[in-house]
Amino acid sequence: MRKDIVYIGSDHAGFRMKQMLSAYLKSKGFEVHDEGAASLDPDDDYPDYAVKVCAQVLKHKAKGILLCGSGQGMDIAANKVPGIYASIAWNKESAAVAKEHDNVNVLCMAGKLTKPAAAKEIAYTWLGLRFSNAARHVRRIEKIKRIEGTFLKRRH
Length: 156
What we know:
The chain is an alpha/beta fold. The chain has helices spanning 15-27, 46-60, 72-78, 92-100, 116-127, 135-155, and strands spanning 5-10, 31-34, 63-68, 86-88, 106-110.
């Protein structure tokens, strides 16, 4: 398996899991870049870290992992960034579908609801897979890109 560059970020609710997951992925040979939070701050806000990770993912054509309490806030914030396709994964099967079918470039997880062993399995599974390029999946992603483009044009 090719070892990718991974940008990782969390708010306070995902901070401990981010620290654990960063160390785990580094031990597996991944190049992990921590985009914050740099310390545990109960008053921080997940959108700040979602934007930092997403910017790096787009700039470097890399992958990102975001953690907050439920994964949902990070998922919502990340999906507001054009070119980011984020999804929450609860197990290795959902992580596999997210990559192979939907070509997700940012994985979101629930820092408060996911056990450490499961988080490791989810991240490692997702990072080890590639988009299937099956015609039906390509067609669907192209439709999503058209939706994104339509709404971006309407804003300007």
